[in-house]
Amino acid sequence: MTISSLGSTTTTALTILAQAATNAVGLSQNVELDQIDGRMQDQLNQKIAALQTPPDAATISQTESQLKQLQQQGSTVSKQTSQYTANSNVLSEIQNQLTALQTAAAQGDATSFDNGLAVANTELSNLMAIPPTAPYQPDHVLGLQGSGFGIQSSSTYDLSTPAGQNAAQADIQTALNLVSQASAATTSNELVATSLSTALSGQIGSLDTTLQQDEQTDQMQLAAQTAQLTQQTQDQEHLIELALGNTTQLSTVLSQIENPPQTATSAFDVLSSAVGATASSYTSQGSSPPILSLFA
């Protein structure tokens, strides 16, 4: 049944059905594609989440643990280095004060002697007692602070007399020997601590570089695997889309029914079709196709 005709285009019931079928199939395919895309995205997210724990996580965790231990050791050694350095400076100042006491005693200068002794005792209290743990040797600081210098006041010696001066100088020398012993041990420990700190800094730097490289490698691998999974999902979506597009549609069937192939009515129609011409074109052109010239 013909519904309407505009120019050379004729609208029939089959035309409307074909268009409706086309629209329905397209809408159905869009819904199906949306559902499929949602499921595939969920699967992709699950696969990517599974990649968040790289295969080398155990190695990285072990390296991080080693690095943390070295950093703690480095912090301890750095603190010890500072303490030994500070003690070394204080002991050097004490030695200077005791040397000045010897001069004051030899000159019978009681005022300078007592003032110098007070400064030396103050410096002695500024020393830090450091436990003698390996690889350090005992620095004798704790014993020195406990017993003191063993030097009396000027009035006890009576620096106005040679005997008093000699007695004071003897005690000062004994104190100098103890301070020198503590200073030598402290300087040695300071050198050991500095060497350890340098060695640990090198190990920490090397291990930190290794850790960064491992983490960067894992991140690159994770990114590559994520990109590969994403590309695979996209490829699968395209294949499904193509598969749905190749499904036989009702609109195609209806279109074939509405526009059936033209059946040839004569030998000339068959021959003209074989060379790409039609009977109507032959008539309108007023000339024979090449193949029809055989019958001229």
Spatial strand order of the main sheet = 1-2
| Annotation, overall tally of beta strands | 2
- As a percent range, the share of helical residues equals over 70%
What can be said about the biggest beta sheet? 2 strands, antiparallel
| Poorly predicted regions | 276-289, 291-296
**Main CATH class of the domain at 81-218:** Mainly Alpha
**CATH topology-level fold name of the domain at 81-218:** Four Helix Bundle (Hemerythrin (Met), subunit A)
- The share of residues in extended strands comes to under 5%
Quote the distance from N terminus to C terminus. Answer: 44 Å
Q: H/E order of the elements?
A: EEHHHHHHHHH
Number of helices: 9
Average pLDDT, rounded to a whole number, is 76
Q: In the CATH classification, which architecture of the domain at 81-218 applies? A: Up-down Bundle
Give the radius of gyration: 52 Å
Shape summary: rod-shaped
**Class by helix and strand content?**
mainly alpha
Describe it.
The chain has 296 residues and is mainly alpha-helical. It has a domain at 81-218: Four Helix Bundle (Hemerythrin (Met), subunit A). The chain has 9 helices and 2 strands. The longest helix has 84 residues, at 162-245. The chain is rod-shaped and about 145 Å long. The relative contact order is 0.11. Mean pLDDT is 76; it is low at 276-289 and 291-296.
Which helices and strands appear, and what pairs or packs with what?
Elements: E1 2-6, E2 9-12, H1 13-50, H2 57-107, H3 110-125, H4 141-147, H5 154-157, H6 162-245, H7 250-258, H8 267-274, H9 279-285
Antiparallel strand pairs: 1-2
Helix pairs in contact: 1-6, 1-7, 2-3, 2-6
